Amino acid sequence: MDRSMEQTLSHFQAESALKHYPSIEDMILDFHHTPGATVQLEDSSSPTLGPASQSKRAVIRDGRGQCRRVFLKTCPGGSLSQEFQKMLRTFDKEIGFYAHLRHPLASIQSQKSPADDASPICLDEALLQFLGAGFVGDDLHLVLSDLEVDGYRLTGRSDYHSLDQAHIAMRTLATFHVASVAVAEAHHLDWVELQQAPQSLVRDYLTSPEFADRVDASIFSVPFLRNAMWIKAVIQAQKSHHPLVPASLRIPTGVTVSLMDQFIDLSPTILSRLRLARVLPQGQRGVLAHGDFHMWNVAFSDKGQMRFFDFQMSGSFRLALIQLAVGANKSQNLTAAAKHVKEAASQGAQLVSLPECFNSPYGTNFFPEYAESVPNGESCLALKTMAADNKVFLIGGSIPESEGDRLYNTSTIWGPDGELIGKYRKMHLFDINVPGKITFKESDVLSPGNDFLAFDTPFGKIGMGICYDIRFSDLAKIYSNMGCHLLVYPGAFNMTTGPAHWELLARGRAVDNQLYVATPSPARDEKADYIAWGHSQVINPWGEVVAKAEECQEIIFADIDLDYMQQVRKQIPITVQARTDLYETVSK
Ligand SMILES: NC(=O)CCC(=O)C(=O)O
């Protein structure tokens, strides 16, 4: 590194965690866990924190030559935190909301120390403290995007983060942290972090072998609800002495990292470096939080300075869709899937998807026979191995899943280490009747799923649907509001609706939401009871078909370019023009 670069970087390095790394490049590489990657720093200006921010851009190339960019930002303290304090006092609605929490907090406090009864908690102060402003000194850093709170939606990540946005994000953080404090106090825990993650994901993650010995965690059964509901649920649970604790994460090392949809899997070295960096004043609790909660984003405090890594989604990655010829023999289907995943990875794919019902013929008469438990059935174990052997993110198309006496049409998502990232059960069942053409009733044997699944990867956020789900534009809009860059619908349209609607629907979802849409299908088998249309496809945010298969077995590839997506969103800014003051699509 040359001298001037070193000087420019000194504000990142001085008295911060970075001193524990030989160089900033080492730190970035450490955070990226990408073997064989190289990193190069460039000057850059970032719009996200406004003109006062300083920013460096790191260009990371992995072993396959794929490129990713990371922005490192700092922001001088003062203005934003002062504004925030003003906001706290000004906005009636929020004050009302906090006041609503005052009672439970105060009663918890009084239970603990009766002497304090006379002096109610100063909630504003508590909030500031738990929001982090108390111990990060004058600095209050937020990098905000992709948050949806009570009808407000933060816009694209390239937008300037206005005070309005800060306000919304602070409300979100306030909600999480105030509730966390309440629960921590009530259960005499050192630390509680509420997580807005799907319940199953939290549970699977926290009980996974990698985490079991690092995290002392307990999990609350709170459904995936909007924030205000979380608070109610927490208070309710607390009142009824519910034995569980909300999706809480206690990391004995004292460092907590919270994300919306994922937890950071911090390596022990990073954990120890962060712990060194985070010196809290005596008796104060810290909050390690970061506005946009993306995978691998980290915020930490260092002697009155708050530092953070903001991994912006940028650059492109390679997606492969496998149009698999699915037959009646399950183990042959699994073997063929493994062969094709390997082939896709060898051609540079980082994210691979199989089609709907890839282990079984598609039909209600087949589902009970081919159904398996998730994640321990034969097909899941095969998918786990495929993902780990080829170091790819793998969307396991879908399989018939059995749980108790119910069957579902379920997609499982696997990370490059073979870990289960999440599962998605088809939400809208395929029940149609087109006289003389096709009648199908999935609900004869299947139950619908009730949960969304959006998951983070280092290269973008991905929302899941299965086949018929693509007809429901609200589902796509919700994923778009969650900040997804790509929607994947493993699907098996047929010879009637395929030619009529398959491409139209995928292009519609892409243009509506200005994101990428991928629809992997099984190959066409003219002898099957249900003849799939084939024509797996990838659509770009402009609505163009950028990759398309014919009917037979094949793999198609597409480069998903998030910079291009931002460009389209800037050119036709519907995301910011939507009249959410008049209408909106929200999840319940
Ligand atoms: N497997 C499915 O959900 C098929 C959906 C379909 O063909 C449609 O027209 O919708």
Automatic annotation (TrEMBL):
Q: What is its EC number?
A: 3.5.1.3
Please give the superkingdom of this protein's source.
Answer: Eukaryota
Q: Which GO terms describe its molecular function?
A: omega-amidase activity
Q: Which keywords does UniProt give here?
A: Hydrolase
Q: Which EC main class describes this enzyme?
A: hydrolase
GO annotations under biological process?
asparagine metabolic process; glutamine metabolic process; oxaloacetate metabolic process
Task: Identify the Pfam families for this entry.
Answer: CN_hydrolase, EcKL
Q: Which chemical reaction does it catalyze?
A: 2-oxoglutaramate + H2O = 2-oxoglutarate + NH4(+); 2-oxosuccinamate + H2O = oxaloacetate + NH4(+)
Q: Record's GO cellular component, any one?
A: mitochondrion
Q: What InterPro entries does the record tag this protein with?
A: C-N_Hydrolase, C-N_Hydrolase_sf, EcKL, Kinase-like_dom_sf, Nit1/2_C-N_Hydrolase
Sequence ranges assigned to domain CN hydrolase in this UniProt record: 317-562
**Family label:** Belongs to the carbon-nitrogen hydrolase superfamily. NIT1/NIT2 family.
> Would you tell me the protein name for this molecule?
omega-amidase
Where does this protein come from, organism-wise?
Answer: Tigriopus californicus (Marine copepod)
